[in-house]
Amino acid sequence: MANPEINPKKIVILSGAGISAPSGLATFRDSNGLWNHLRLEDVATPEAWKRQPEVVLAFYNERRSQARAAHPNAGHLAIAALEKHYQVTIITQNVDDLHERAGSSRVIHLHGELDKARSTSDPSLIYELDGADIAIGDMCAKGRQLRPHIVWFGEDIHGYDESVEEMLTAGKVVVVGTSLSVFPAAGLVKHARYRAEKVIVDLEIPNKPFGFQSLKGSADIVLPQLVEKWLKLNETGTT
């Protein structure tokens, strides 16, 4: 089947931890990243949950508290501003809600969301935490323990097929703040179309996909400049 038509007014953003780093949230894989201080086997696998759920809950409760205390930075706000003139979809590997708090209305969370909990027996039972944490003894409607609504290592990511469809129709694609080293999320870039304008933004760009323009620098500095350029082009009628 032929690929769908590209929409020149559609922008897809694939974001990773680097866009939230200027807001004070730790990344996972840089020199000061979380995985340099923790073993993922202890907090981010189904096996860890079975072995020591209280430790897993404490880890995510702390991360949730940090995320709630953080604020959207200029990079998040710039992306939200694109919605004035473009159809924007954000596909994020991040589990914080900084894109939403910045004003973005269409966000696909590949790896889950910190501020939600879900049932351990029925993944369709998902609950907004509304400022609360998760404790041992917090139950779903079916009487089973709640767990973080997070994709752990070894679990299937959320929204992959939907994300592929978004990529296939995007006239512009921005990859920001991700090393493109975690699959299957990193594989989404191969679905960006040849004729689409493609940009990658990060402090370091070790894995630049073919056909992407590199803009090296912090997301909170580079993205506002890129967005200003695109908004000006929109005003002149140039896509």
Please explain how this structure is put together.
With 239 residues, the chain is α/β, with parallel strands linked by helices. The protein contains eight helices and nine strands. The protein has a six-stranded parallel β-sheet with strand order 3-2-1-7-8-9, sandwiched between helices. Strands 5-4-6 form a three-stranded antiparallel β-sheet. Strand 2, helix 6 (98-102) and strand 3 form a beta-alpha-beta unit. Helix 5 (74-81) runs parallel beside helix 8 (219-235). The chain is elongated, with a radius of gyration of 18 Å. The model has no long low-confidence stretch (mean pLDDT 92).
Write the layout of secondary structure elements.
Elements: E1 7-15, H1 17-20, H2 40-43, H3 46-51, H4 53-69, H5 74-81, E2 87-92, H6 98-102, E3 107-109, E4 112-119, E5 126-128, E6 146-150, H7 160-168, E7 170-176, E8 197-202, E9 213-216, H8 219-235
Parallel strand pairs: 1-2, 1-7, 2-3, 7-8, 8-9
Antiparallel strand pairs: 4-5, 4-6
Helix pairs in contact: 5-8
The percent range for strand residues is: 15-25%
Number of E strands: 9
Structural class: alpha/beta
| Continuous helix count | 8
Give the termini distance in whole angstroms: 27 Å
Uncertain segments: none
What's the pLDDT, averaged over the residues? 92
**Major sheet attributes:** 6 strands, parallel
Quaternary class = single chain
Major sheet: order of its strands?
Answer: 3-2-1-7-8-9
Shape call: elongated
Order of helices and strands: EHHHHHEHEEEEHEEEH
Helix content: 25-40%
Radius of gyration: 18 Å
